């Protein structure tokens, strides 16, 4: 059939299929980019390196990500989306209060422990871009702040539920929990110290015990 003789309906039906294929290709490239960035860092990510990994041409990769910077930002967003799916969304199904806070932290440390051999983009990216202003750093900082905001809200809800002391400073508690994650990553990944995961969990329970309204508040936690 001559394309010029196709009806508008046939043309419209063909367009979504083309868009769907393009989205699938972009998703596959992004998946490869995320895996590559986990091992070489965001700074090591490039159109050329990704083309080699995916066995595509540079122009083919470039068609989906117009620049190295856009590629890096897309990887950060994809990492954040997967982090939410694995950590945040399942945890917020738990009841408000200490049970939900425990679920958020437990899923967070599990995610970090799985990434020890590859690297957490939140942590490695912060090291790479902490002193390099620009869109990539802004995107990374924005995602980390979004996660921190979710944790701070969980802490505030636990205060409202009467399970954390009313004088609890959510930002201070958040700071302490984040410190445990950084210590876990450093101790387990860099120093290869056995028992780091157990120490992170023990640190969480001590932090919880300090802020909880009564020991009984935490006794029923998993």
Quickly list its features:
222 residues; elongated
Can you characterise this structure?
With 222 residues, this protein is mainly α. The chain has one domain: Tetracycline Repressor, domain 2 (Orthogonal Bundle). It is built from 10 helices and no strands. The protein has helices at residues 8-40, 47-54, 58-64, 68-91, 98-114, 121-129, 135-160, 170-190, 196-211, 215-219. It starts with 7 loop residues before the first helix and ends with a helix. Mean pLDDT is 86; it is low at 216-220.
CATH architecture: Orthogonal Bundle
Q: Could you tell me how far the N terminus lies from the C terminus, measured between alpha carbons in angstroms?
A: 65 Å
Structure classification: mainly alpha
What share of the residues lie within helices?
Answer: over 70%
- Number of helix segments? 10
Low-confidence stretches: 216-220
How do the helices and strands follow one another from N- to C-terminus? HHHHHHHHHH
**What's the number of domains?**
1
Q: How many strands?
A: 0
Which percent range describes the beta-strand content? under 5%
CATH fold-level topology: Tetracycline Repressor, domain 2
CATH superfamily annotation: Tetracycline Repressor, domain 2
- Rounded to the nearest angstrom, the radius of gyration is 22 Å
Structure summary:
The chain contains 10 helices and no strands. With about 220 residues, the protein is mostly helical.
List the helices and strands and how they pair.
Blueprint: H1 8-40, H2 47-54, H3 58-64, H4 68-91, H5 98-114, H6 121-129, H7 135-160, H8 170-190, H9 196-211, H10 215-219
Helix pairs in contact: 1-4, 2-3, 4-5, 4-7, 5-7, 5-8, 5-9, 6-7, 7-8, 8-9
